[in-house]
Give the backbone structure.
Amino acid sequence: MIKEYLVGNAHRYASKWLVLVIDIFMVVISFVLSYLIRFNLTLDFDISKLLIQLPIIAIIATASFLFTGSNKGVVRHTGVRDVYNIFNAICLSSILLITIVLFNRELGILENFTVPLGIIIIHSLLSFIAMTTSRYVFKALYNNLMAQGFKSNKNILIYGAGESGILTQNALANHSKSKVRVLGYVDEDDKKVGKNINGVKVFPKEVLNREFLVKNNVTEVIFSMQNINPKRLKDLVEGLVDYPVQVKIVPPVEQWINGELNVSQIKQIQIEDLLDRAPISIRNSKISEEVKNKVVLVTGGAGSIGSEIVRQICTYEYKSLIVIDQSESALYDLQQELKQNGYHNFLPIVGDVRDKNRLNNIFQEHRPDIIFHAAAYKHVPLMEYNSYEAIKINIAGTKVVADLAVSHNADKFIFISTDKAVNPTNVMGATKRIAEMYVSCMQQQGKTKFITTRFGNVLGSNGSVIPLFKKQIDKGGPLTVTHEAVTRYFMTIPEASQLVLEAGAMGDGGEIFIFDMGESVKIFDLAKNMIKLSGLRYPEDIDIKITGLRPGEKLYEELLANGENTMPTYHKKIMIGKSRSLNYIEVRSKIDELCVSNMFFNGSTVSLMKEIVPEYVSNNSDLCKLDKKKVNVKSNSNLKKVL
């Protein structure tokens, strides 16, 4: 009955006054014990003096405890801070007692109030031990009663027996609504394996197998290692997704609330955590020097990459920041976000990079020094049969901004390209490659330095595969994958944007900077892992449907075209691509012809694109027939030469 009452009322905190009464009782008992210890466990002392001293000791202790607030801590959450408060209270009590004893010796106010220094020291030690022990005893009793009261305990393993793992265990133990039991730590350090930490055993990593997990009814594995290698984390998690356990992760320490881990922050691991790259510094001295007191213009500034470039530029000491985008809603959202974060020195402009007159007015008014050109159409299947729009924004739009950069003497023009521009198999990739070529041509004009950056998919960008899979999982599936063998490179939006800024700062003009994208990811495996990390089973709960390659889609992406190679830079993640030499006059002439033809809806624009980019060969698209015609034309011309 008593146990049921305690468990049923476990949510109520013990009164701080009850804690104060218990503490004073402990102090009084400790004072009596200190006399017994001082006189070798005999009664060879004046008990009448002791009885006079006890009330005074109790009053001094009460004053000290109330002053330090040592009685205000929640007993069942006792931690190091509470022990520190007890220590301060005991020290203050001892100092007050010694002061009163010394004054009494001089003034003789209380005839029988003389306490030997040895007893004061013994009393201090006993009081500290008694008060600390009592709190931890009550905490242990509470936890045991709660553990018995809950029938649905979850057994948890914490991967990482370091400081972060210990803090995770403490957070779980102190959480009032937690119905879990930490079965043990798992660590790779042989020196820790087999030992106990806070009464919890440390196991070797070999225990992460089906037999151990099922036998011990382990339902969760929490990864709590602050500096774990992303590839190592990926391997460990992928080894667990087939077992009947949930996999969770503790966030980086800088995300903890007021420096303390909250149980609510321990989240189920997401696929982004496995694809995430090693963190890089957001602030960089070279970038800071580059943009200092400069007018910076970002086109497509409300898009995934453009908006992150804007956010990062806002942390530097620029003169002014112009953000252009044709999407009114997205630009408004970015404006509100920047204002809420305390940034005000920026100008959002709703505009279209295809509108030369509008952009010319912006250039005349603001005189940008550095231009980041991120505006583009990027969805491969949509652009495959909307070549008019793809050419108009990706080529003609780039041409407009690049021409204005030269005519207004901008210092730098940084063009954001894509890996789909390499050996393109679709309209979108071909337009980006032609834009790269035009940017290279413009390097020969004026003083403006033209720089190209090239990288693959970014995590969480608009239209990327991961948000699509999440929506499909929420709807109950199936997940759609175009081909079982398709692979892609992934990079986080902040990292990609940071590297764009870095490349822009280091570029001297004419370079194509290629980013280290790490290892490519098999999309089919990505889909399976997302299903399993959602706590579902493949294919029992959610299946994966192979839909076939979309028009223009590749099985795998490339970062270098045929005949290209790279040179290193001072940044290990940025390389310079050495591209083939171009006939700049001829290329510019054909690009001008392409833009004019597109204005008049000339049906030969895709064929002209294939002339400008000979390596552009369509794949899984109706446009493949143009490549067959090209082959037939070449064959006929060769036959005529022979004849």
User: Anything to note?
Assistant: The chain is about 50% helix and 15% strand. The chain has three domains: 2-147, 150-269, 291-457+491-517+559-612.
